[in-house]
Structure formats: C-alpha cells, structure tokens
C-alpha cells in the first residue's frame, strides 16, 4: 500500500520531521514544529509545550492562520506524539533525517511553534545538535531557567538561541548580557527603542545585534490586545497586577 501525506500508513508517525515554508526556503532554513502552547492530542491527552508562556499565548502567530488548518494541526500533533511516545525512536529518526544532503550547511529552526517543554526533551535536542556538527541550529525560547541549567554551561557549538520576552520568566533576563527578542507594534517602534529588527531574515535573531525587535504579526485580534505596547511591557503590567492582588501578608513574607 502506498504511503499518503506526511505520515506512515500503519503507525501514523511522521515520515518527514522537518518542513520548509517560503520564508525559510529564502534563507536556507528548515522548521521543526510541535503544537503551540496547550491543548489535547487526538487520543485525549493534555499537553503544554510552552510551560513558561505569558501574554505571548494571546498574540502567538502559531495559534492562528495556517497553523489551525486540520492537516497542519495533525502534522504537529503527530510530531509531538512521536516525541512523547518514543523519545529514543524520535531522536534517532531526527538524527537520521538530518543526514540527508539537503541539510548540510543549512539552518534548522527548532520550534517555529512550541518550546523546550521538558528537561529530557531539551537534552535530546542538544545531543541531536552534537550528532550533526555540519548543520546549524537555532531557536527562540522562554525557558530561561531550563537553558541556564542545561544549555548555557556547555552549549553545542552549532546551536544558537535568543530568549523571547512576553513569558513567565521575563524577570530572569538581563538586557545587558542576554540575547533577547521582544515583539513591537511596528518597525518605527523598534528603531525608536534602539533595537535591531530581524524582519529581513529570521536568522538575524541569532546572528545580528543582541537586542532583537520583532514586528508584530498582522493578526487583528492580536494587535488589538497588544494595543501599541511591546510584549515585555504588557507582560510587566500583568505581573504587577498579579503582585498587587496578593494578600499583604504574602507580599511582606509574613
């Protein structure tokens, strides 16, 4: 029986793990995708692939548009189920796929949706990077604590990352030392803040200046929620409101 679509006919595990859209093709990069943020798999299991998400979940491009199409959602669910149900098999399949000539000297964006949701999953990706030294890997992440513990002490030489603001761990980031990305309402706001835009190429997020400005996606509902603010500013407002709602005894530590 011939195979159909991106899945094998009997196990429903993806035959092709990495994809490439028009933007990635232009810069010689490929994507690895899992579902964004929280939901349920087809078998009913709940998941949260972005445990440190904050206000970003309200404006996330990966929860709109083509990402919601049934075939795309099914592919991302299949990818995540492969990771969860057979971690060694998924890791071996990824290393094997990356052996193909098309990936040599290419860039792999780990997660155009989703994040490094567990320690074991993060460690697996670091092993994959080391297993394929001729390939360049990069990622955005809000998992600051996880990266501080597992990645920063000894990162693979071929892996670059940028921390993105708008998450639950924003306070742990230092603009003076960390490579950081923030979402701005428009290009003028990026320039006015003295940050550098990655609009010309997504690779500028890890290859350009350390403070990275991202132009907000043209999603009407998301733009209304952003209301002209930077993602970091909106997150700071939410965090301050949360502190203000705490009982006085808790705030004072008594």
From TrEMBL:
The Gene product domain, residue ranges: 20-236
InterPro entries the UniProt entry points to: Gp88 (IPR020290)
Short name of any one Pfam family annotated for the protein: GP88
Highest taxon in the source lineage: Bacteria
Protein's name in the database: Gene product 88 domain-containing protein
